[in-house]
Give the backbone structure.
Amino acid sequence: MEELVQQLVNGLAVGSIYALIALGYTMVYGVLRLINFAHGDLFTYGAYLGLTLLGSFALQDRLGLAAGLLVLAVMVMGLVAVLGALLERAAYRPLRSSPRLSAVVSALGASIFLQNALMLIYGARYQVYPDILPQTSVEILGLEIPVLRLAVFGVSITMMAVLFLFVQKTRVGTAIRAAAIDQDAARLMGIDVNRVVLLVFVIGPALGGAAGLLVGLYYGQISFTMGWVYGMKAFTAAILGGIGNIPGAMVGGLLLGVVEALGAAYLSHSWKDGIAFFVLILVLIVRPSGLLGERVAEKV
Amino acid sequence: MSRRLAIGYLAVAALLAASPLVLDAYFLDVLNNVGLYVLLALSLNVILGDAGLFNMGQAAFYAVGAYTGAILSTRFQVPILLALPVAGLVAAAFAALVARPVVHLRGDYLLIVTIGVGEIVRILLVNDPWGLTGGANGIFGIARPTLFGWRIRRPHEFLYLIWGFVALTVFLFHRLEQSRFGRALAYLREDAVAAEGSGVNTARYRLLAFALGAGWAGMAGTLYAAKMTIISPESFSFWESVLVFLMVILGGAGSIPGVVVGAALVVVLPELFRGLASARMLVFGLLMMVMMVVRPQGLLPVRARRFRAAASPAPRAGAAEGGP
């Protein structure tokens, strides 16, 4: 029983990271019908930028742990957002009206380029985050739960809630939803679709970058290729929840994290990375519109 | 096949046949690798170029073929060249099984699924099912091929074996293009709805194309196993699939000479710039992005087939006004 609860908490923590990354896939897909293959790599850039900034500014020593990490997170999210916007301009905007295959190939090219640029800068070896977070646990209902897991979960959920409110309640959020439903009609209503696309390529990567930073702080070890595994899992989460659907990405991420944690614990650990792919293929065969996918069924 | 193309093929064949006279073992081995990648790229071209199915898991079928050949060779002492067609059939059957439920999925979804299949196959090989695949270490001690009592082991002998198979493949695939099957694929790639409406069973042809392409990749896999005598899961990674995908796109999807050129460029260019080896993938990534903007149809794109009337009949008066 205790093992089960521990795995559940672990799964929710990892799943919330998947969900954060999945939001980037799902928002871009919602507006452009494009799988941004480079999104996983932007996530990795978040982790590496976080490492570099942590080492060069040591904000946690100057401002205290909480304020230092907050400033660090804002810096990382800002930088990755700039990268996302550049990527959109360089790799995707020239192909907006091209056939689907061209955009897919360009996205893959961007992914390969970003990944290898990172390898050339930092080297091919693992990088290790400094140990700055306290390894304490709290006791909840007689169970020792690491604070870090709860923090990862809490931070992710907070960001997702903010995003959800932004998209649902603000004028700009309404513009994003309108462009996702019908770009041409949105344009006729006076919405600058190019700016919406740019905004989506700023918000998604910012959240992905934050997820990268969280992974660095949580696991302590990062590699330049990790974006592809996390990216595939996050994409699975987006499909699982119904691609193009923001609450769907959150639900899908958490669900996938839990399924993976339980599967690794009770079925087979060596198949841990395969579970996500099985889920992905199963969902695409059985219910390609995803769990919460009614709203976007006509897009699939 | 046009006359110019035939002359081009003959020139390449003559150069390859003469290459052992001038090149050392190292460069002959590079040529052998080119040949294997040409086979792989041609096999993917049936799926991606002819049928328009975004398959980014070709390494999975390559792996299934290589492992089938290797297992038959090491466990059952089957001569590797006899195992070749068996490996092709196993890979084709595997592909048909896997593709059956997903072949109707739209473009980029299929791409993701095939990436998933590639990863699952790789993880499966590492996990050593029933002690067959040797886990992460792979299988070693695969017997050399023998042809009419001749044991093939040196690079120039493999050159003739591999490129002979390439020549056969190019010939057969050109014939296939002209066949009913090839025309059906061209039709459904250009407009699947119109093809379906004209009575082309699109699902069946897509599945057939998938199985054929995968089977051919499987045979290429067995050739690879025979050449290396040792195979391991890391030879069949996601990047292998990406490289083969890139060869087809770069050369010109659907164009056989284009795909051959694409494969040759992707293998040979990094060999020429060995000093920049670590930046190789960076350049590929950049190339993919630039290519899609500048020349998305590939270096040697496929040309629409032209049909000429046997003898042009004199235009009849009033024909333009329409029939009955």
Q: What stands out?
A: Chain A touches chain B at residues 34-35, 90-91, 94-95, 98-106, 108-117, 119-120, 228, 232, 235, 239, 270-271, 273-274, 277-278, 280-281, 284-285, 288, 300 (CB under 8 Å). Residues 295-300 of chain A have pLDDT under 50 and may be disordered.
